[in-house]
Amino acid sequence: MNAPNKFNWPGWLVFGAILVFWEITSRGLPKLQLYIPPISQIFWALGQLLLSGTIAKHLSVSLARFLEGYLLAAAIAVALGIVLGYFRSLHSWLEMLIEFLRPMPSVAIIPVAVLILGIGDSMIVAVTVYASMWPVLVNTIEGVRHIESTLIDTARTFGLSRRRILWQIILPGASSYIVTGLRIGLSIALILVTTAEMVVGSKGLGFFILDEERSMNSANMYAGIVLVAVLGYALNRGFLTLEGKAMKWHHSMIAREAA
Amino acid sequence: MTGRSSKLNGLLFVLGLAVVWELTAQAQLINPLVVPPLSKILRIFWELSWSGQIPWQIIVSMKRAAVGYFLAAAVFIPLGIFMGLSPRIHRMLEVVVEMLRPVPPPVVIPVAMLLFGLEDEMKIFVIFFSCAWPILLNTIDGVRNLDWVLLNTAKTFGLSRRRIIRQVILPACSPQIVTGLRVSLPIMLILVVISEMVGSTDGIGYFILDSQRRFRVPQMYAGMLALAILGYTLNQIFNLLQRALLPWHGGMMRRREEG
User: Fold this and answer.
1) Minimal C-alpha gap between A100 and chain B (Å)
2) What is the distance in angstroms between the Cα of B193 and the nearest Cα belonging to chain A?
3) Closest Cα partner for A77 from A194, A174, A168?
4) What mean pLDDT comes out for the span A14-34?
């Protein structure tokens, strides 16, 4: 943090030391190897899985479900959030329903979805949409409400059309809140995809990991986890990069205001 | 006031929705096997609550959740304080934390099953792991944003390390620590439910999934209702505790704003 350009030697040394310790203990204790195989074996397994293409199939399935669910949730929740944030009377009608549904852990919806949609892709996408919608929705409502009403009133006085008010005042004004909601929604979507795949899936990374555990292929299981972690990290990075690009004007605007 | 009328609107809407649900289900417009009448769900919920089945499942789940949650707090709040105070320790552990953090928590379940079987320890480990990051990162943030004048003053007056931590750092960082604990609360609930769905023979998550698999649909919805109530109650208890344990915080913030 203090010196982002400087390579974090102590950090990587500690990390490396842990890996070496892992490797040695696991090799020294054959009984442990069944549960915690040496790190070299895990990476060997990962390499093999990647080369043979087995895991690429699961990865692409999970990624497709994630993208479909997450993007759909984002589109629905931002649109609904803007409407509910803008029209307070409408929000008052729906508020209690939202407050009632929100505290329920979203994964509990999986059994209902199975009942209604079966165990296919659509069910996994549906639960992902449901779960990752909440943080986006709540943050969008909050964001729209925090826009200074003078801004909107001024725009109205100058006779701006509804559409222009939406695109040029409400969306930019609420964007920092929306982005926060979208970031939380991202990790929730990943949780829901992997969970649903574990509970009912027959493909996807969540299924792969659990399946390898059940057949006691622990090296493959850990390899799957490494891949999911990489996926989670990459998605987060991608989000931050997009955010940086999309919100550039925002930072420059704040700077301008300050100056 | 608008507040009261908006509450009334919300209540009316929820009640209206309930009536629509009941009528469509009674008229068999939707498959009653999938969506039974609300009255039936409520009756079953009532029966299961009185027979003690739902309360018992919830107690089983909450025992696991509480152990994992408090264990995470007991380990990661102190660790966060040390990492926040010492940039060196922070740099040493940073890489390890950044490597583990992007792992979606449900994926840890197979590892936990491999190591601990299907016992309570498995769920406790999963909850411990997934609550760790919000608690740790918020604590570090809190310590880093500490008013250094406070710390230096305490040092100048020759307070012992222990007293500095207990009487200066902990109170000053407690809002951030509480934020971490608050963020982990729903995560804890989600992970209990997931781990019980994937590998358990009791607990509320197991109860819901099992009811679905046996086509005891009203029982499934009753379990979800119990879970929603549980989530809501936990949040309320958290708020109460926060107000009871950190009453000075509200006052201090006010004073700071005035000053």
Assistant:
1) 7
2) 7
3) A174
4) 90
